[in-house]
Amino acid sequence: MRLDIISIFPEYFAPLDVSLIGKARERGTLDVRVHQLRDWAHDVHKTVDDTPYGGGPGMVMKPEVWGEAIDTVVGDGSPRMIVPTPSGRPFTQELAQELADEPWLLFACGRYEGIDSRVMDEYATRLRVDEVSIGDYVLAGGEVAVLVMVEAIGRLLPGVLGNAQSAVDDSFAPGSMQNLVEGPVYTKPPVWRGHEVPPVLLSGHHGNVARWRRDQAIRRTVRNRPELARELDPGTLDKHDRKLLDELAFRVGQEDVAN
């Protein structure tokens, strides 16, 4: 997969040289190319922003600079263009998987009050353009959001994870326990500072272990992400699931939330 990233802070992407993503780059699984947006600004100060039409605080990134940058990077190709912005569609595991199936992604990192909207309008006529949000909060720029997305996407590529099953079992992965979040995990030693590993995990009984993990996933989802738990399909819940939800005073599809 090829990833192009345009930013006024290319140094932000040094973390892409380490860990799983760094190894994927070394193997050639990921071809990451980071570009300095100011290379396409032609004034002495390498200006990439200006005051907003209509007034208001902050500055807006100039369309001319972005247009030259994108034209140069894209050439005659057709990557899928991703613009991180808090006003975009939510970035989810499902979208990460969808993007992992693309051969080429172009990330445009906005700053200040964002990129002139005509840039997205222009490139939407020839590329697939997605404005994407990683959460309901505002960052200083799109670089951190791109790091999040690249890691989420990159780890889904074949061969990036040592154990491919890890991605299948992720929280929010399609088909993974109906998108329940994952429950707690443990490793050796069996007792640490007086805290014991749940005995069921030491039992060797795969059926009981699976049941315990599902129960813990349900408990954690109800506690931390009740909006997800309300989306559980009642038709897929067994008697044990229903009993546990009753104990938690939680009703699927309703507004009840456990204490």
TrEMBL record:
Q: What is this protein called?
A: tRNA (guanine-N(1)-)-methyltransferase
Which cellular compartments is it found in? Answer: Cytoplasm
EC numbers: 2.1.1.228
* Residues that coordinate or bind S-adenosyl-L-methionine: 110, 134-139
Q: Which family does it belong to?
A: Belongs to the RNA methyltransferase TrmD family.
What are the record's GO terms for cellular component? Answer: cytosol
Q: What does this protein do?
A: Specifically methylates guanosine-37 in various tRNAs.
Q: What is the organism field in this record?
A: Nonomuraea maritima
NCBIfam families, alphabetically? PRK00026.1 (NF000648), trmD (TIGR00088)
